[in-house]
Amino acid sequence: MLGDKFRFRFAKTGTLRLLSHHDLMRCLERMLRRADLPFKSTAGFHPSPRVVFALSLPLGVAGLNEVIEIEFTRSCDSEEVLAKLCAQAPIGLKFTQVSIVPMKATAIPRRIVYRLLLPSDRVSVAIARSEELLAQEKVWVDRLKPVPKRLNIRPYLRSLHVEPSREGIAQEFATGTANFETAEFSVLVLDLWVTQTGTARVDELLKLLDLDDLPEAGAVVERATVEIRDEVPNPDSADVPPTGPAETLPLDPAAIAALVRRDEEQSAAVGWSVSPASPVVE
Hints:
By secondary structure, the protein is α+β, with helices and mostly antiparallel strands. The protein has helices at 21-34, 78-88, 123-135, 167-174, 202-208, 213-216, 253-270; strands at 2-12, 51-53, 62-77, 93-100, 109-118, 140-143, 149-152, 157-164, 186-193, 222-228, 248-249.
């Protein structure tokens, strides 16, 4: 079908999950130029393609069903555009679906779901901590940006639970660490609401669940679902995102200093994966 604005679903996996959002935008611009697609550009001294990501991915998180919208200067065939983008995509970036949307439409996220494969010895802790968090009336986290504050993220928690998974079996067998007769695999599911004023962060939740050491040890967090508002035409009135901003409290100077030190340590730890060493389409 012909159209001049398209909404794509794509996956960003493998080593490309270490690509920053800024570098992903640069990569996409090079793909569009190589594919010779008539994309619209922004105005100003440094024009760039008119693209909108529904929600940026945290660095190191794999995206299985992400959303991006791209505007073109003329009507194009959707399947042809999809094929051209796939032909120019680097390994780890795969465009899976395309649909035509009105020019005034915007991909506003409503809900996201993260998944993390759990070792068998961490399942009971994950279940207990998930139940504890959901039972609390308020769940406080400290944030430094955009302004230092304590934030109640409980309204953003739609569901936290552990469910059986067969996905890890192939991974464990590939490394020779699994026994099919005795192995049990479970996955942590973080089902979160997204609002215009914010959402919960996966790193915050893993810390609250006492599981933040798993990504540091090599476990890969996946964002399996990005639900868009206009793609849910008749939502259940009893199952909707919260309205209004989340409750906040001011942070004392000692807490702010601790957050600054933590951010500096984390930046130093991940500095090796930030551009220009990150993989891009050259």
